């Protein structure tokens, strides 16, 4: 069976020097992208850490898998979780439902030796039977690879890299290579020296992450396993700026995504729509094709006990295999639509604002219910200067008269503190408006696009049994 190295960056948007991001240098990830396939239209399922990971691990949307918003991080084996930790309210309510199989459980049932670095950040721990939990990024990687070889077991190693997560490198205290004058500020942020400094520090965090990814890839090569290992690199969601983390805009949802390894053509780009939820079914397809074997469900899983086969179970997921694209990136094997969700008050059911988006590769519709609540989940690092180093939130407040549109975007993101008006419906043409600044939902000229995406969202609601939205009336 092929080995798997999964490099997961935290809070990184689709920003690489490989993609031409001004001011940024990412030589290691650029090299990885050139050695395999870069997926230009890859998205996470839910734009915050725990929920995004839950969607990746289960192949299911979060209203189904059970984790909505962040949960506790018990980075240790299930046997080490205390009764006090298990009794915490969030540990009981914001967790993956027992009836679903995680990628970790699936690989464990099929003989993989598994490790995870830095943090787990999903629950319950019983559904993540890793053999090793590493506190550091790559320091223990050599020993992990050696043990897997000694045991003659294929390995799965998830390397979580935190450096593109706030707090970024503080350029007031340490020099960074990225120059604020060389960066390009998205249109939804005020273009001031302070925001440029913040964006430059974000890019510096990506460069630090790139160095760690490079170390992981070097260690893989030194182990002699580079030729029998599939490497996946992506992020859990976008960065902590307006239109980023915990929003359904492109900065929050679009992720860099590379797959490289044996049998995967090098130097290719694919523009098919794919999701992090596609990883589990894709790996099952790819593993079986490489080893001429048949994988099985965990024997103690509810799915297996009910008599379902692994193929039947995978067909029931929201994610779909894109293994065909790994053999031929010009094939048609992606999604027709990418649908995303946010439940602002977390575990369902709740009376908070529900947000959904549907995207077809060009047109995006964002739909919300319960907007009269005027309360949205704003993570501390999206707002606070201390300890998170966020310069942009306060700066947008300071220059709101000079940049009224950018302030309006901030106020809509944080309505409970800034009295912003949360819109029920938005429509964007990302080909002509990649920063999603011009809402076309009220224009008769684009009524057909609006209606088409609303119907696609209705179909998705039925297919995924999303009972937390009504989709009954539209503005």
TrEMBL record:
InterPro entries membership: Alkaline_phosphatase_core_sf (IPR017850), GAG_Ulvan_Degrading_Sulfatases (IPR052701), Sulfatase_N (IPR000917)
The record's keywords, sorted A to Z, are: Hydrolase
The EC code for this enzyme is: 3.1.6.1
CDD domains associated with the record: SGSH
Can you name this protein?
Arylsulfatase
* Record flagged with keyword Transmembrane: no
The Gene Ontology terms for molecular function here are: arylsulfatase activity
Q: Where is the Sulfatase N-terminal domain?
A: 2-287
- Give the source's domain of life in one word: Bacteria
Per the UniProt record, the source organism is Neorhodopirellula pilleata
């Amino acid at each position: 069976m092929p080995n798997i190295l999964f490099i997961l960056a935290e809070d990184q948007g689709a920003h690489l020097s490989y993609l031409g991001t001004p001011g940024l240098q990412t030589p290691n990830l650029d090299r990885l992208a050139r050695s395999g396939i870069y997926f230009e239209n890859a998205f996470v399922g839910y734009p915050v850490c725990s929920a995004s990971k839950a969607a990746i691990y289960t192949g299911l949307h979060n209203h189904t898998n059970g984790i909505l918003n962040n949960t506790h991080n018990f980075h240790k084996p299930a046997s080490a979780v205390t009764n006090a930790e298990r009794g915490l309210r969030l540990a009981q309510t914001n967790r993956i439902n027992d009836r679903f199989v995680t990628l970790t459980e699936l690989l464990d049932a099929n003989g993989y030796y598994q490790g995870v670095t830095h943090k787990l950040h999903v629950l319950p721990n019983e559904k993540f039977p890793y053999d090793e939990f590493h506190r550091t990024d790559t320091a223990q990687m050599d020993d992990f690879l050696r043990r897997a070889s000694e045991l003659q077991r294929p390995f799965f190693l998830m390397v979580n890299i935190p450096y593109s997560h706030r707090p970024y490198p503080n350029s007031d205290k340490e020099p960074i290579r990225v120059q604020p004058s060389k960066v390009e500020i998205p249109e939804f942020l005020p273009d001031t020296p302070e925001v440029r400094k913040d964006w430059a520090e974000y890019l510096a965090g990506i460069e630090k992450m790139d160095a760690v990814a490079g170390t992981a890839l070097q260690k893989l090569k030194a182990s002699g396993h580079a030729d029998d290992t599939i490497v996946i690199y992506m992020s859990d969601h976008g960065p902590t700026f307006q239109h980023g983390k915990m929003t359904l805009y492109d900065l929050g949802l679009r992720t860099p995504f590379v797959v490289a390894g044996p049998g995967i053509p090098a130097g290719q780009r694919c523009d098919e729509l794919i999701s992090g939820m596609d990883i589990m079914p894709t790996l099952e397809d790819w593993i079986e094709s490489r080893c001429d074997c048949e994988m099985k469900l965990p024997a103690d899983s509810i799915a297996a006990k009910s008599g379902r086969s692994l193929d039947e179970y995978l067909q029931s997921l929201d994610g779909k295999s894109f293994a065909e694209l790994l053999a031929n990136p010009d094939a048609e094997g992606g999604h027709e639509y990418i649908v995303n969700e946010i439940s602002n008050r977390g575990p369902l059911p709740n009376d908070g604002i529900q947000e959904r988006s549907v995207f077809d590769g060009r047109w995006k519709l964002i739909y919300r219910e319960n907007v009269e609540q005027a309360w949205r989940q704003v993570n501390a690092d999206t707002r606070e200067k201390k300890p998170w180093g966020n310069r942009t939130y306060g700066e947008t407040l300071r220059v709101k008269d000079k940049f009224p549109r950018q302030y309006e975007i901030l106020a809509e993101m944080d309505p409970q503190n800034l009295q912003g008006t949360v819109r029920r419906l938005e429509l964007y043409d990302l080909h002509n408006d990649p920063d999603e600044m011009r809402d076309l939902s009220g224009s008769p000229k684009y009524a057909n696009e609006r209606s088409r995406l609303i119907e696609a969202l209705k179909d998705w609601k039925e297919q995924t049994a999303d009972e937390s939205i009504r989709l009954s009336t539209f503005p």
